[in-house]
Write a structure and sequence with these properties.
The chain has helices at about 15-20, 30-40, 60-70, 85-100, 140, 200-215, 230-235, 245-250, 265-280, 285-300; strands spanning about 1-10, 10-15, 50, 115-120, 125, 135, 145-150, 150-155, 170-175, 185-190. The chain is α+β, with helices and mostly antiparallel strands and about 300 residues long. The radius of gyration is 20 Å and the shape is globular.
C-alpha cells in the first residue's frame, strides 16, 4: 500500500477575537507557554463566555502535547507503549491543566459531550443545551453563545467549503512547541497494488521507486502532497487557500510523524475511553489514566 495524501494537526484560531483582545496572532516559533498566556487573555467568564481553546476530547491537541514534550505512543521497536513514562505524562498533565488549572478550556459537565460540526463560515461545538453551542469563526452569527478563540484539528474543511462569502476569521497557525514540535500525520488516501512477482527483490525496488515518486508528487482534489510541499504548490492545488495558511500547511508537513497503521482502530478508543474521559470526569489522575491507556495499547500491540 503506497501513501498518496495525508493530514496533519493545526491550530485553528479566530483572528477577530485575537485582535479584539489585543493578543498577537500566533507566530511560527510560538511555545506552549505563550499558548497558555494567550488563552488566559482570551478567556472570559460571566454572561458572555469566551474560551481560549477546546481541550476536552481533543485527541489532536493531546497527541501534539505528548509529542511536543518528547513522549511517544509506541516505542521504536513497536512492542510497547511508553505513554506512562515521564515525557508523555508531562504532555498529558499539560492537557489536563488547560481545563483544571489554567481554566482556559471548558470542562464538560455530567452528560456533556462536546462535538464539533463545520458550517460554511464557522465551527460549532454542540452541547446538551439546545441553542447554546460554542462558536469559532464568525462573530456575525455567534449571538450570545459562548465563543472559542482556538482549537486543534487534523482537517480544515472550511477552507474548501463556502468560505468565499462573509468575513473570514478562521485562520491557521503552527502547533506550538516545547522540547520538540509535534503534530499528527495520518494517511487519508493510499494506492493498493496487487501483483505476482517473479523476482520479489525487483518488485520491492520497483515498489519503493513508485512510492518515492508518488510521495514527491502533488495529489489532485482535496489531497495534499505528503512530503515537502511548497506553499505555492498548495495554493495552485487549492486556490482558496490564503497565502498565510498555505505556509503553515507546508511547514507542518516537515515535522510530521506517523502512527503504526495496525493500531489505528485501537488508538482512539484507548485515548478517549481510558485516558481523556476519566480525567475529565474526575475518575482518575493523569498518571493513573496514562497507565491505563498504556496498558490498553500494550494489549493491542500484543
Amino acid at each position: 500500500m503506497l501513501p498518496l495524501s495525508g493530514s496533519v494537526s493545526f491550530v485553528l484560531y479566530d483572528s477577530a477575537l485575537f485582535q479584539a483582545a489585543g493578543v498577537d496572532k500566533p507566530g511560527p516559533g510560538w511555545t506552549w507557554t505563550q499558548f497558555v498566556e494567550a488563552g488566559k487573555r482570551l478567556t472570559r467568564t460571566g454572561e458572555r463566555e469566551q474560551w481560549g481553546t477546546m481541550a476536552a476530547n481533543s485527541i489532536p491537541l493531546l497527541l501534539s502535547l505528548i509529542w511536543a514534550h518528547g513522549g511517544e505512543l509506541v516505542n521504536k521497536e513497536g512492542r510497547r507503549s511508553p505513554l506512562a513514562e515521564p515525557a508523555a505524562r508531562q504532555g498529558i498533565q499539560f492537557w489536563a491543566d488547560l481545563m483544571q488549572r489554567h481554566r482556559i478550556a471548558p470542562l464538560p459537565g455530567p452528560g456533556q459531550n462536546l462535538q464539533p460540526n463545520w458550517t460554511q463560515r464557522e465551527m460549532w461545538f454542540f452541547t446538551p443545551q439546545p441553542g447554546q453551542p460554542i462558536v469559532i469563526g464568525d462573530s456575525s452569527t455567534a449571538g450570545n453563545n459562548p465563543r472559542l478563540a482556538t482549537m486543534f484539528s487534523t482537517s480544515v474543511p472550511s477552507l474548501f467549503g463556502g468560505m468565499a462569502q462573509g468575513p473570514r476569521t478562521i485562520q491557521l497557525a503552527d502547533v506550538p512547541k516545547a522540547a520538540h514540535r509535534g503534530t499528527q500525520f495520518s494517511l487519508s488516501a493510499a494506492l493498493v497494488v496487487g501483483t505476482k512477482a517473479g523476482d520479489p527483490r525487483l518488485a520491492l525496488r520497483a515498489g519503493m521507486a513508485l512510492a518515492d515518486h508518488l510521495l514527491q508528487s502533488p495529489v489532485g482534489g482535496f489531497g495534499y502532497p505528503v512530503r515537502k510541499p511548497e506553499a505555492a504548490l498548495l495554493r495552485r492545488m487549492q486556490p482558496r487557500l490564503a497565502e498565510e495558511d498555505a505556509e503553515v500547511i507546508a511547514s507542518a508537513f516537515t515535522y510530521s510523524r506517523g502512527v503504526p497503521p495496525e493500531l489505528t482502530q485501537r488508538i482512539f478508543p484507548a485515548l478517549s475511553g481510558k485516558l481523556m474521559q476519566p480525567i475529565q470526569r474526575g475518575q482518575a489522575t493523569p498518571d493513573e489514566a496514562a497507565r491505563a491507556a498504556a496498558a490498553a495499547l500494550d494489549e493491542a500491540l500484543r
